[in-house]
Amino acid sequence: MHFFQIISILLLHLGYIKFTAAVHECNTKLTCSDCISSSPKCSWCEDIYYNKTEKYFHKKCDLVETHQRQLCSKINNPLSNSVLVKTSPLVGETRVSPQEITLKLRPEQPTKVDIKVKTPKNFPIDLYYLMDLSRSMRDDLAQIKTLGDILSREMADVTSNFRLGFGGFVDKPIGPYTRTKKEEIETAVEPGMQNTFGFRNYLPLDKDTTKFGNVLNNVNISYNVDVPEGSLEALMQVIVCNDEIGWRKKKKARRIVIITTDATFHYAGDGLLGGVVIPNDEKCYLNPEGLYTAWNMFDYPSLSQIRSKMIENQMIPIFATTGNTALYQKVAEFFGEASGAVADALNSNSSNVVPLIKDAYQKIAKTVSIKADASDGIDVKFQAKCGKEELKDSAFCNNIQIGEEVTFVTEVVASDCRHAGKATSFKLETPFDDVVVNVELLCECNCTDPIINSTHCTARGNLSCGMCFCDRDLYGGRFCQCTAEEAKNQTLCRVPGSNKPICSGKGTCDCGECVCDEPQKNKNNEMEYIYGDQCQCSNTTCPRSNLNQVCGGLERGSCECGKCNCTESWQGDACEDRCLAGEDRCFDNAGVMCSGKGTCKCNQCKCIDGYIGDFCQECVTNCPDPCQNYRECVKCRVFDTSDLSTAECEVECARWNITSHIVVDKVPDDRRCIARDEDDCSFVFTYNKDNITDTVQLVVQRDRICPAEPDILAIILGVIAGIVGIGLALLLIWKLLATIQDRREFAKFEKDRQNPKWDSGENPIYKKATSTFQNPMYGNKPEEEEPLTT
Asked: Which Pfam families match (predicted)?
């Protein structure tokens, strides 16, 4: 029993985690489109003032039930739905209904639609017989020459529109798969054998089944060396060569390929033995004679390639083998239900090929399937209602009678909005017809057309889906009520001097004001309210009682910003203790309740900050100076230097419980107080406090310490002496500077006297005895003439 209780608790806890994760995912979305595309559980409230009267605003993106509980009047919650575009009843040539639908899908929210399929009567059949023509199949070739007429008669019970074709295969005509030396070929090859080939289309699909026997009369067996054959390479050509083989379009006929062989097969990678390394490219390479020509270019295909192409082309394989039946049954199992593949044993001479084909076809004809070719981001799941069977998770119905109707419940879900705004469609494919599915993604709200400069947005922004979108360069705020600069300033939304995040991480800053997160249930299933100027407070962060209840529960107290406010009957950090009645324990000896520094609760003093003690009598922080408290009483009682009257003096002394005083010659140094009175005199005192009676006795030193009167004569003489001193100092400085200057001049004179420098002098009024004149006629060559001297 204990184990199941633990499991139940874990499941409830996981459910809570999933629920809160969904709520959180919704609450983080800020626009309507982001909201509805994030989760199918999210919805958007278009109310403009969504609980504006409270300190907080409700989240516009939230669960539908939350919006309903909070009385949102306009909830935007689009739901996925389907619309039938084209639907015709299943009569006549109509085999699938509806024929076209439109799905409006919200991401991660599925919608369902019923697809009805009716197996048609007389449905056309294209049957291609692909045979191993190696030497070991000699007797089988002879046996099936009359197969055309027999199959035509047997298939008449199923359909009147039957076509038959024939092709053969052996292997790649190169070593080591076959003989390539002339002498080996001459020794091993029997007369009438044809050379080795990969694949030949002998008879394209034809309604004239007599051609089948005629063609086979001219077909001979061939030869090869190794055991595996090139059946997969031939099968790939049969699948992809639609025009050459003559396949009718998909949905117009059942396409069936019968592969008869007695050997295993070569597959991708085996071509390396013959030097063929390029992977098979899944294309048709038949020449006009129907012969496969790319055997030396491409490797054998893989089983996965064959499976993919068969399903794509709605080709149904029937493996009829005279050996290795278990292997081919594994191959059919690998191809899966979607391919319709069948594998069965064939007699050594193919004598049972007709009943084998008929039985295999009956199994195929009784199978109805459906598949989707949806693109990435769109998931499709099917449930099948097959006849009278119960609904099951499957895309197949087996053992369905011709003309019987089956229903496929189709669930479609879009994983995200990657295709939003694009024309998206896909098909639901059945063997008989397709259903066109158009997809519209619901990733945008239908309220996105904005109201320009709405009055609800202070005429500064556009209103869309009940939300204001402000001009970001100019305005901000929930209603564009402040400037962009004010909106960016988040200083007021942070606790002063704290490194805590904006609004304590529990709100958003709206124009300098914290808008706290709305109330929601916490992990204890309690409704948590966030409040405070910086959203720093919560009603669930207080101490819890031993019952894990905040403040002991609502009947004991309330949580106020981290501290319990208990009711009158309870006390303690978490209101866990009952109160004592009365107030007698709150009064001190003087009859004062809690010394005036607290309140009485539960017959105990609750002191204000900074005080402790039974009666809040002791100050521990920001305490007043006792010397300052007692100074006035000393002045008025002992020295009579206070401005207080006698009555006022007694009141002042009684205020501090001063009952007496004594005067002594000298006050001891411990707890010594020094104060100054109006006479500018200092007085010394101390105090003795009785902690029992809370009374004070003052001990005052008898004599005050007053400053002496100033000596006027000394002051005058000092001023005169100062003036004389300054004059003498200035005189000495001048004399010192003059002496220094004289010494410099004398030193310069002595230096010039010891180093004389004489120069020639000339009388300024002296005039030379000779004069020089120049003949103006010889001005061009004055340098050749002798000057005229007188």
From this structure: Integrin_b_cyt, Integrin_B_tail, Integrin_beta
